[in-house]
Amino acid sequence: MAAIGIIGSGSWGIALAVLLHTNGHRVTVWSTREEKARSLRESRRLKTLPDVELPEDMEFTGDLETAMRDKQVLVMAVPSIYVRATAAKMCPYCADGQLIVNVAKGIEEATLKTLSEIIEEEIPRAKVTVLSGPSHAEEVSRGLPTTCVVGAGDRGTAEYVQALFMSSSFRVYTSPDVLGIEVGGAMKNVIALAAGIADGLGCGDNTKAALITRGINEIARLGIAMGGRFETFSGLTGIGDLIVTCASMHSRNRRAGILIGKGYTMEAAMQEVEMVVEGVYSAKAGLALAEKYQVQMPILTEVNHVLFDGKSARDAVEDLMLRDRTVESQGVPWEA
């Protein structure tokens, strides 16, 4: 049994807290707001996971030091835009070699750093790993079969984290490709916005399939240019995560995209969803990375035009369809 601190009390943090508690670990959850921690202690319910009753011996606190003290593992479960600020607050309480598992997905717009790079920058003495994959909190919290990947710089650490999370309903694989895992996790949210926009416009299954397949092509091109591995993008944290995020109504990115396709502004769509829409924050960062590594990403480019430049969603779809003719894969040459 391990003592684990969950840093963040949103749906994903609570779902993982329930999973880890079921696995026999002692779990403490930190919320940035004491009143929310108090509500969780008293009601044993989270509004966004209404069917999940939180165990009586699961602890909730608004005090960061309490959540971190004497913990073998810390799970970083705050939205990507708050990772740097939260990591900076955590730094004074971190032990040397503290193991941190980041479960958020995103790229920092100002620096183009991955979230694990940000945590390592703010907490140099920590050992940072990532957990990612097609895993909606609503399903994990109910014990529905799910698979994820742990990425770490060394095999031993990856296998330790794998053992913590592994259960009969939560299968965990390991990978050394931390960068590829994080790029896939961040960029799939932008493609999911595009998939939602297409749904909002009334497009069909053909369109969804096109966005998923061409979307993973874009993500892989960027990730490989940055140093990620092709195999990662053909796996759970690439095509797997992209499929679930583009297809499910659990996906806040897809839901926001549907509203944008129906004519909502980006700001209005985010207010309607009432949760952080990570793809909005990753879109500009993804475009900057594409320019930095000289990678063509037409879907991501059009999403940026719709989100930030006032372009209509219907015009964006037409421009994608009318791009110059080309081959499907540069890696498949003609014989003659």
Describe the structure.
Helices cover 51% and strands 12% of the residues. With 336 residues, the protein is α/β, with parallel strands linked by helices. The chain has an 8-stranded mixed sheet with strand order 3-2-1-4-5-6-7-8, sandwiched between helices. The protein starts with a strand and ends in a 15-residue tail after the last helix.
Give helix and strand order, one letter per element, not per position. Answer: EHEHEHEHEHEHEHEHHHHHHHHH
Instruction: Round the mean pLDDT to the nearest integer and report it.
Output: 95
For the CA atoms, what is the radius of gyration? 20 Å
In percent, how much strand structure appears in the residues?
5-15%
Tell the overall outline: globular
Distance between the termini: 62 Å
Q: Enumerate the spans where pLDDT stays under 50 for 5 or more consecutive residues.
A: none
Major sheet: arrangement of strands: 3-2-1-4-5-6-7-8
In short:
This protein is an alpha/beta fold and 336 residues long. The chain contains 16 helices and eight strands. Strands 3-2-1-4-5-6-7-8 form an eight-stranded mixed beta sheet, with helices on both faces.
Output the keywords.
single chain, 336 residues, alpha/beta, globular
SSE blueprint:
Layout: E1 3-7, H1 11-22, E2 26-30, H2 34-43, E3 59-61, H3 64-68, E4 73-76, H4 83-90, E5 99-102, H5 115-122, E6 127-132, H6 137-140, E7 146-151, H7 155-165, E8 170-175, H8 178-201, H9 205-226, H10 230-233, H11 236-247, H12 252-261, H13 266-273, H14 278-292, H15 298-308, H16 313-321
Parallel strand pairs: 1-2, 1-4, 2-3, 4-5, 5-6, 7-8
Antiparallel strand pairs: 6-7
Helix pairs in contact: 4-5, 8-9, 8-11, 8-12, 8-14, 9-11, 12-13, 14-15, 15-16
